[in-house]
Amino acid sequence: MRENELHAKLAERLGEECAWTAVEVIIGEWGGCRLDIPTGVDSRRRRRDGEIRRMFAMGLAVPDLVQRYGLSARHVRRIVTDVN
């Protein structure tokens, strides 16, 4: 990704000034390096599973969690009983 493309993407979310600051930091830290950017699937899954565990601990029933997250009851039960 080129510098102007990076700035444009960041500016959409952060605004112009923050985007330029972010670009400068990124270039300063990793300029010239090839980076492997994760897709975020694992972090989103961990966040979702944490939310499911918290809601279950607060008393939300498995069928409600199934409806809310679009998962099977078996999968929700596996998440709430997983101690990792």
From TrEMBL:
Mor transcription activator domain location: 10-83
Domain of life: Bacteria
Gene3D superfamilies: Homeodomain-like
SUPFAM superfamilies assigned to the protein according to its UniProt record, in alphabetical order: Homeodomain-like
Name of a matching Pfam family: Mor
Official protein name in the record: Transcriptional regulator
Originating organism: Desulfolutivibrio sulfodismutans
